[in-house]
């Protein structure tokens, strides 16, 4: 018959206490999930209760995974599969991840078979994002919108209609070129100037149609990088993106000039623009034209990749960094003609003194505090590399 325990007396343990590897006695409590060792609590190995976290926390953890890792995680269980299909986990649509883009080249000619395989991947990738109702923040693509055979313009339009673009912030779109093309993409006899002009017109028309769609569906764009045709209509549409902070525009066609008034209107109409990168190629027929830039918000200006871009007026009170380079294109002129052209152009130093009071860095060189009062040796060397005026350019070539 078992003995009755006195009040206040602890029950004897059912078994001898466990002993650690160091010989220290340990008392184990069933169901406690921990061990007690000399008054100190140490957690025993156990799984992390991920499913007990709030859904927002689980989604935040999944957001750090790559696209491939998300697809792998979706195979773990049904609960994870449902979470992985949440639209805000699919924020990036990058059609520039494969092929030529990894090689750093603008264009790679591939076999017709490789081109078909790549095109199939593009459509599968688009279906993968649309099936998850992706809510995009970033879109990168490079497709020739003038391609009447593959019809990339229709493909992009359908894709934008199938995903959520209301929160799209970054757009990188090369609408003049498909980087992977088969060698017979331009058959012999189809590259006449007339045919090229018609193709360019198709590209511009499809680009403007696509830009209208972005205005309606993605008004929050803050960063854009794309070729630009500099037509009045395209500029008017581009100015609708009032939240733009960063803008990079590349020249569209070597025979397409830029109207000075249109360039000035663009920079004046974007009140939040901080960074502007321009690749402008001034045609020979427009040699002698100069341009004005006005912006109250612009802090970074890079026109170092432009050719023949000369400024006549700068009103950039917030500008802190400027990159500009004088490019000699090998146009041979006699002295009289050259002086007649250069007499129209203002000295860049005078423009900077009056129009950029907060300039700190000029062509990667930090300016001295007194640069506006007087020039110095290093500053003169920079002006010789960037200014087209008579004082800083004495050559037969322009």
Would you mind describing this structure in some detail?
Strand 7, helix 6 and strand 8 form a beta-alpha-beta unit. Helix content is 31%, strand content 17%. It contains twelve helices and 18 strands. It is globular, with a radius of gyration of 32 Å. The strands form four sheets. A ten-stranded mixed beta sheet has the order 5-7-8-10-11-12-14-16-17-18, with no helix packed on it. It has a four-stranded antiparallel beta sheet with strand order 1-2-3-4, with no helix packed on it. 21% of the residues are buried. It has 398 residues and is of the alpha/beta class. About 9% of the residues have low confidence. InterPro entries: F-box-like_dom_sf, F-box_dom, FBXO4, LRR_dom_sf. It comes from Chelydra serpentina. Pfam families: F-box-like. This is F-box domain-containing protein.
């Amino acid at each position: 018959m078992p003995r009755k325990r006195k009040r206040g007396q602890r029950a004897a343990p059912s078994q001898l206490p466990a002993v650690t590897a160091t010989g220290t006695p340990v008392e184990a409590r069933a169901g406690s999930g921990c061990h007690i060792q000399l008054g100190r609590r140490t957690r025993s190995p156990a799984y992390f209760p991920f499913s007990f976290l709030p859904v927002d926390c689980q989604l935040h953890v999944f957001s750090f995974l790559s696209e491939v890792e998300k697809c792998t995680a979706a195979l773990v269980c049904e609960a994870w599969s449902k979470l992985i299909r949440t639209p805000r986990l699919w924020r990036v649509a990058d059609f520039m991840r494969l092929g030529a883009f990894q090689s750093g080249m603008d264009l790679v000619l591939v076999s017709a078979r490789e081109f078909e395989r790549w095109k199939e991947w593009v459509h599968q990738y688009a279906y993968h994002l649309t099936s998850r109702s992706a809510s995009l923040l970033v879109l990168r693509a490079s497709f020739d919108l003038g391609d009447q055979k593959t019809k990339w313009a229709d493909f992009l339009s359908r894709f934008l209609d199938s995903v959520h673009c209301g929160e799209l912030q970054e757009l990188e779109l090369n609408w003049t070129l498909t980087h992977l093309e088969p060698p017979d993409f331009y058959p012999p006899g189809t590259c006449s100037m007339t045919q090229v002009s018609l193709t360019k017109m198709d590209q511009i028309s499809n680009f403007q149609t696509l830009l209208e769609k972005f205005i309606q569906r993605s008004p929050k764009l803050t960063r854009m990088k794309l070729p630009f045709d500099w037509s009045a209509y395209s500029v008017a549409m581009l100015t609708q993106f009032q939240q733009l902070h960063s803008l990079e525009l590349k020249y569209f066609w070597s025979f397409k000039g830029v109207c000075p008034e249109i360039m000035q209107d663009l920079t004046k109409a974007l009140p939040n623009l901080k960074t502007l990168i321009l690749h402008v190629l001034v045609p020979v027929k427009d040699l002698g034209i100069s341009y004005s830039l006005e912006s109250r918000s612009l802090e970074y200006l890079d026109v170092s990749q432009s050719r023949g871009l000369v400024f006549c007026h700068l009103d950039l009170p917030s500008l802190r960094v400027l990159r500009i380079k004088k490019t000699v294109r090998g146009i041979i002129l006699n002295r009289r003609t050259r002086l007649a052209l250069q007499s129209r152009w203002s000295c860049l130093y005078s423009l900077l003194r009056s129009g950029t009071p907060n300039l700190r860095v000029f062509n990667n060189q930090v300016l001295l505090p007194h640069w506006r009062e007087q020039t110095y040796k290093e500053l003169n060397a920079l002006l010789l590399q960037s200014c087209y005026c008579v004082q800083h350019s004495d050559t037969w070539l322009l």
